[in-house]
Write a structure and sequence with these properties.
Blueprint: H1 2-7, E1 12-16, H2 29-34, E2 38-42, H3 48-59, E3 63-66, H4 72-76, H5 80-86, E4 91-96, H6 111-117, H7 138-161, E5 166-170, H8 171-177, H9 181-189, E6 206-210, E7 215-219, H10 223-232, H11 247-252, H12 254-265, H13 270-279, E8 284-286, H14 290-293, H15 297-301, E9 305-310, E10 314-319
Parallel strand pairs: 1-2, 3-4, 4-5
Antiparallel strand pairs: 6-7, 7-8, 9-10
Helix pairs in contact: 7-8
Amino acid sequence: ATMIMADLGAEVIKVERPPKGDPARYQGGMFASAGRNKKSVALDLKSDGGKEALRKLVLDCDVLMEGFRPGVLDRLGFGWEAVRALNDRVVYCSISGFGQTGPYSGRPAYDMIVQAMGGVMSITGEPNGNPVRVGTSIGDIIAGMMGAYGALAALYEREKTGEGQLVDISMLDCQVAILENAIAKYSATGQVARPLGLKHPSITPFEAYRTKDSWVIVAAGNNKLFAKFCEVTGRQELINDPKFSTNPERNKHMQELSDLMQERIKDKTTDEWLKIFVDNGIPCGPINSIDRLFEDPQINYRNMLVEVEQTHMGKVKVAGN
């Protein structure tokens, strides 16, 4: 959350615990990325001097963001009401595992826990396979994004009212919020979403196919694109087949269609198919490994790999904003 705020130009002062500061400083790349653009100060918030220093910061700041379990800052004298009494213009953003209220509010949480409890892990992975964690920390990251835009919305509101407010972000809430159609589908039909691996739950064809040398993603999300996909793969006979003529029908016969297309796609390389699909306006892409990102012309043109100077590490590249 504060990385995003700093990227957008905010002066961010990170309060860390003495004597060594944030443990993430010793975990390499994570701190180099999330700690960029920030100032830091080490304060012992159990000491009178540390508390007085934090009070001075609160008097002069626009946003206070904290990631403790609910109640920790209250006990230290810096809960929402205490901070509001010092500076009623402060936007106080609390990000915790389960939020400031509710039966789970006092529990600790980590990324993988909320991915599991929020339903995301139940729809991730291969059909009939073991549960799979999403490969990046979306439990942490989505909560941080929600915290940043919640704080920005509160600052905008403050321009009208002159007063700050409490922004209460729950990591678990955020995982539920990104479940797209899985919630609505269950509510409407009683159908529980399950892992589909490389397929989409409601659009067909929208999946990965194995090529001669790797994989290619094809997202033919409407009838026009499906017809073009059939043409370039030599499967024109499928365009008017009743089983595949509409998206609902294609969804019903998803595996049969997948097998028919796979038979054609396996004979060319990913690069060969990408050229064909791009030339014909069919949405597509390779499955890039991380090292391929460093070579991708679009990612480099958009400055999405940013070089920063990091103490004890020298120059490293981190993900851009």
